[in-house]
C-alpha cells in the first residue's frame, strides 16, 4: 500500500452529524473530518491556509492538518503551487522533513494530513536567545541532511527560514512548508530557476539579481543565514529599509559577533559567499572540519514512490501504468485543473475506467470521429480531436490501472454547434458507454468510496 491515501468526499462529510453545510472550521469547538480526524486547536495560519492539531479517532495518533481554501487558491492563482506541494511532499521520506500522510478534499477545501511536530517552530526557541556553538552545529547538521536529501530528489525548498523549521518531541529538526519549492522540471533551458521568491532576510543575492539562479546554491545561502542566526541570535542582514538590506545581501556585507569561533567564522563566510559560483556546496559542507565534528550520517529507509510514479518503459500495452497517487486528479472534487477552464466550454476533466484494450479504445474514437468530420491525431495511448471550425478541441489519454483495467482521461473544450448540439457530449461520448467498466472514477470519488 502507498503511504499517502487520497480521499474525496462531499462537503457534508466533514461536519458533525448535527451540522450541515461547509462551516468555517475556526467557528466550531469540535469537528470531525470524514469521520476520521477530530480537529483540535489552531496551531497557525497564513494567507491561504490554517493548520490545526487533530487526532485520528481510530488510532489516537496526533497529526497536523493544513486546511486550504479552494476559493483562495483560485483567487490567488495558486492551483499549480498546491499540486506541486503535494507532489513534492509525497516523494520526501526523510527523518528531518515533515511527512505527509494523506490528502483529503471536499468541494471547498483541501486537507493535508501531516506529521505533527510537537516541539513547535525553531523560531520560538531562537527568540529566547542564541544557541551554543555545539547546539547550532547539531541543528545545522540536521538541516543540511534534509536539504541535501531534497536536492537529491530534485526538490529545491526556496523558503528556508526558522518559521519553516519545526521540532519534534525529541527536539529534532523537521523541515516543513514546501509551498514555494521548485522541482527539476521548472529549471529553464539555461539551467536556472527564474521565479523570484523567498523571505527577504533569507533570500540569496542571485535571486535578487533576477538573472536566474541555481536552486541548490540558493538553499545553501539560506542555510547559512540560519546558522548565523542560531549562533548570533540575530540575522546577518537586517535593516528597516528593505533596499538597504538588499544592498547588504548583494555585497555579502555582515559582521560576526565577538563570540564566534575562527572555524565557525570561516565556515559561515563560505556559506554566505555572495558569489554563487564560489559558494560552498552541500558535498563540501559535509566534508568541512567544523561541520563534521560529532556528525553521524542519518540512517533511514528511503521509501520510494512504489506504485506512485508513472512508469513508461515503451509502447507495450502493459507498460503505462497510472498509480494510486495519480488518482488524486481523477476526481472532480479535487481536480484543480478545472480552476483554469472556462465553465461554459470545459468538458470538466471526465474520466472513466474500461476493460477494453487502449488501442481498441483509440480505434473506436477514431471511427466515430470520422462520421462527424472531426480530425483525429493519434499518439501512443492518446489522441487529440479537433473540430474543423474550432468548435471542438479534446485530448484523450489512456493509462494502465491494473492488468485488466485502464483509465481514460478526457480534457478539453467544445462549443455548441448547429441547433445547440455538442459533438463530444451529444454524439461521440454516448457511443463509448459500452466501454465503461462499472462506474466512473469521478463518481466513485464523489460518494466517498474512492476509485474502484
UniProtKB/TrEMBL annotation:
Cofactor: Mn(2+)
This protein's record includes keyword Kinase: yes
Top-rank taxon: Eukaryota
GO biological process: signal transduction
Catalyses which reaction(s): L-seryl-[protein] + ATP = O-phospho-L-seryl-[protein] + ADP + H(+); L-threonyl-[protein] + ATP = O-phospho-L-threonyl-[protein] + ADP + H(+)
Residue ranges annotated for the NAF domain, each copy included: 317-341
GO MF assignments: ATP binding; protein serine kinase activity; protein serine/threonine kinase activity
SMART domains (alphabetical): S_TKc
Record-listed ATP binding positions: 66
Any matching Pfam family: Pkinase
E.C. number: 2.7.11.1
Transferase found in the keyword field: yes
Entries under PANTHER family matching the protein: CALCIUM/CALMODULIN-DEPENDENT PROTEIN KINASE KINASE-RELATED (PTHR43895), CBL-INTERACTING SERINE_THREONINE-PROTEIN KINASE 14 (PTHR43895:SF160)
Family: Belongs to the protein kinase superfamily. CAMK Ser/Thr protein kinase family. SNF1 subfamily.
Protein name (record): non-specific serine/threonine protein kinase
Amino acid at each position: 500500500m502507498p503511504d499517502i491515501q487520497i480521499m474525496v468526499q462531499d462537503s457534508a462529510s466533514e461536519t458533525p452529524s448535527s451540522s450541515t453545510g461547509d462551516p468555517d472550521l475556526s467557528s466550531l469547538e469540535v469537528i470531525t473530518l470524514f469521520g476520521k480526524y477530530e480537529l483540535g486547536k489552531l496551531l497557525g495560519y497564513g494567507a491561504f491556509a490554517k493548520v490545526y492539531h487533530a487526532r485520528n479517532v481510530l488510532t489516537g495518533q496526533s497529526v497536523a492538518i493544513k486546511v486550504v481554501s479552494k476559493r483562495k487558491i483560485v483567487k490567488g492563482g495558486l492551483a499549480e503551487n498546491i499540486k506541486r506541494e503535494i507532489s513534492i511532499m509525497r516523494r520526501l521520506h526523510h527523518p528531518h522533513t515533515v511527512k505527509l500522510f494523506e490528502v483529503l478534499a471536499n468541494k471547498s477545501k483541501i486537507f493535508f494530513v501531516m506529521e505533527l511536530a510537537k516541539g513547535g517552530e525553531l523560531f520560538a526557541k531562537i527568540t529566547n536567545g542564541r544557541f551554543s556553538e555545539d547546539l547550532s552545529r547539531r541543528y545545522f547538521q540536521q538541516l543540511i541532511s534534509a536539504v541535501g536529501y531534497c536536492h537529491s530528489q530534485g526538490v529545491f525548498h526556496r523558503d528556508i527560514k526558522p518559521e519553516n523549521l519545526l521540532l519534534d518531541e525529541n527536539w529534532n529538526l523537521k523541515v516543513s512548508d514546501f509551498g514555494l519549492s521548485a522541482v527539476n522540471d521548472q529549471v529553464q533551458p539555461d539551467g536556472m530557476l527564474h521565479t523570484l521568491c523567498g523571505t527577504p532576510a533569507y533570500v540569496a543575492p542571485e535571486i535578487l539579481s533576477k538573472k536566474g539562479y541555481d536552486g541548490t546554491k540558493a538553499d545553501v545561502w539560506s542555510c547559512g543565514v540560519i546558522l548565523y542566526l542560531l549562533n548570533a541570535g540575530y540575522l546577518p542582514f537586517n535593516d528597516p529599509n528593505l533596499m538597504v538590506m538588499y544592498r547588504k545581501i548583494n555585497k555579502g556585507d555582515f559582521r560576526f559577533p565577538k563570540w564566534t569561533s575562527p572555524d565557525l567564522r570561516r565556515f559561515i563566510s563560505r556559506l554566505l559567499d555572495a558569489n554563487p559560483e564560489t559558494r560552498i556546496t552541500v558535498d563540501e559542507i559535509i566534508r568541512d572540519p567544523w561541520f563534521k565534528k560529532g556528525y553521524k550520517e542519518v540512517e533511514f529507509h528511503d521509501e520510494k514512490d512504489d506504485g506512485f510514479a508513472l512508469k513508461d518503459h515503451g509502447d507495450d500495452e502493459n507498460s503505462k501504468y497510472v498509480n494510486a497517487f495519480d488518482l488524486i486528479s481523477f476526481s472532480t472534487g479535487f481536480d484543480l485543473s478545472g480552476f483554469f477552464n472556462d465553465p461554459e466550454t470545459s468538458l470538466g476533466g471526465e474520466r472513466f475506467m474500461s476493460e477494453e484494450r487502449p488501442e481498441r479504445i483509440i480505434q473506436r474514437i477514431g471511427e466515430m470521429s470520422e462520421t462527424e468530420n472531426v480530425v483525429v491525431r493519434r499518439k501512443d495511448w492518446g489522441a487529440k480531436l479537433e473540430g474543423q471550425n474550432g468548435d471542438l478541441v479534446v485530448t484523450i489519454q489512456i493509462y494502465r490501472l491494473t492488468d485488466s483495467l485502464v483509465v481514460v482521461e478526457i480534457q478539453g473544450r467544445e462549443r455548441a454547434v448547429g441547433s445547440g448540439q455538442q459533438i463530444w457530449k451529444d454524439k461521440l461520448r454516448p457511443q463509448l458507454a459500452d466501454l465503461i467498466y462499472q462506474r466512473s472514477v469521478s463518481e466513485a470519488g464523489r460518494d466517498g468510496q474512492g476509485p474502484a
